[in-house]
Write a structure and sequence with these properties.
The protein has about 270 residues and is of the alpha/beta class. Helices cover about 45% and strands about 15% of the residues. Helix 1 crosses helix 8.
Length: about 270
């Protein structure tokens, strides 16, 4: 990883949740390359046997390349952890200029089999946590007159077209996941309107095609699906975390179409 001359986020502080691997790690590394000091967060810091990658490795890659990153353990399902994440970031790096809500926990199963515990956990991590983290970082952004909030979503939030319905939506148990992501998209556009006059951009971003991450592979969402390189999501995220808040806000955006619109390549 080398650093480019164009440092769109120079001097900025960013929080990226779910950054131990996959899309979150790629976004954290791209923001660091653009000059941001990055606090990366996940439930564990050191490697675990179940998945490739860890917060420790994300931080090591960023710092080895000349960037600046710290790791903060936080379980987004726990309110105290959410508050501690913001407090520790402010204590070590300063108030956040950028918040990327990427952390997620996902179950796919028919709605008749969905337990209340799993349903609540998905909404707590993927809806309540982004909402509350935004509440905590917006006051400092307002004071500075600028800020960027990005919520990582999914095309699963789009209403299934039919009948007939695609097997993916009919048979895979996508309803709860789609509810979560649709809620996140609507929160993004609603908050964008609320904080527009404060100079704060709020957007949601989804991959246009599937990304071959450890999480996607676990849920069998790579084989037989169109796949895009993870760098496309990272570059699109950078654009939404550094663009003009007066024009690039209130978007439910998708990686490849956004990059084409902005005439940007990784």
């Amino acid at each position: 990883m080398s650093f480019a001359n164009n440092l769109e986020c120079e001097g900025k502080v960013a929080i990226v949740t779910g950054a131990s691997r996959g899309i979150g790690a790629a976004i954290a590394e791209r923001l660091a390359r653009a000059g941001a000091k990055v606090a990366v967060s996940a439930r564990t810091i050191t490697p675990v046997d179940k998945y490739e990658g860890s917060l420790q490795e994300t931080v090591e890659r960023i710092n080895a390349a000349g960037g600046s990153a710290i790791a903060i353990q936080a379980d987004l399902a726990v309110q105290d952890d959410r508050h501690r994440l913001v407090a520790e970031t402010e204590g070590q790096l300063g108030a956040a200029d950028i918040l990327v809500n990427n952390g997620a926990i996902t179950y796919y199963m028919p709605f008749t089999e969905f337990t209340e515990k799993r349903w609540r956990l998905m909404f707590e991590v993927q809806v309540r946590a982004p909402y509350e983290l935004a509440q905590m970082v917006v006051p400092a952004m307002r004071e500075r007159g600028a800020g960027w909030i990005l919520n990582i979503s999914s095309r699963a939030g789009v209403h299934p077209q039919g009948p007939p319905f695609m097997p993916l939506y009919r048979d895979w148990g996508f309803s709860t996941y789609g509810m979560v992501k649709a809620a996140l998209d609507r929160f993004s556009t609603g908050l964008a309107a609320e904080v527009y006059d404060d100079g704060i951009a709020v957007n949601s971003l989804s991959p246009w095609d599937n990304v071959a991450t450890p999480g996607a592979s676990t849920h069998d969402l790579v084989e037989d699906f169109a796949v895009e390189d993870i760098s496309l999501m990272a570059e699109a995220a950078l654009m939404l975390c550094s663009g003009d808040p007066k024009t690039l806000t209130g978007r439910v955006a998708y990686s490849q179409p956004l990059l084409a619109e902005l005439q940007r390549r990784p």
